[in-house]
Amino acid sequence: MIGIEDFNKVEVRVGTIIEAKVNKGARKPAYALKIDFGEEIGVKKSSAQITELYTVENLLNKQVICCVNLTPMHVSSVKSEVRILGSDSEQGIVLLSLDEKVKNGDLIC
């Protein structure tokens, strides 16, 4: 288990997907995404294995919940700067979502 001090170090924020395309170099099917987190954080890149339930078209302008302060990792040619959060279901990854639209960059608490 981790303590509350460690949990509080994780920064989870809301962003809007502004660009999505197939990450052709990834070992497993994935999308290369650009996500807008507002003025303070800006636009960040991510590679996400969410191709089973989502298309490029239905990802555009979708608000997603992401961890924004992890160490970046390279997935093929994409420097994945944030981790999109979802649930690993039998059908594939289901993205966490909000009931209402909120401001990009809002903190999840």
Automatic annotation (TrEMBL):
Keywords: RNA-binding, tRNA-binding. GO terms for molecular function: tRNA binding. Residues 6-109 form the TRNA-binding domain. Pfam families: tRNA_bind (PF01588). The keyword tRNA-binding applies. InterPro entries: CsaA, NA-bd_OB-fold, tRNA-bd_dom, Tyrosine-tRNA_ligase_regulator. It comes from the Bacteria. The keyword Transport does not apply. CDD domains: tRNA_bind_CsaA. Gene3D superfamilies: Nucleic acid-binding proteins (2.40.50.140). This is tRNA-binding protein. It comes from Peptostreptococcus russellii. The lineage of its organism: Bacteria, Bacillati, Bacillota, Clostridia, Peptostreptococcales.
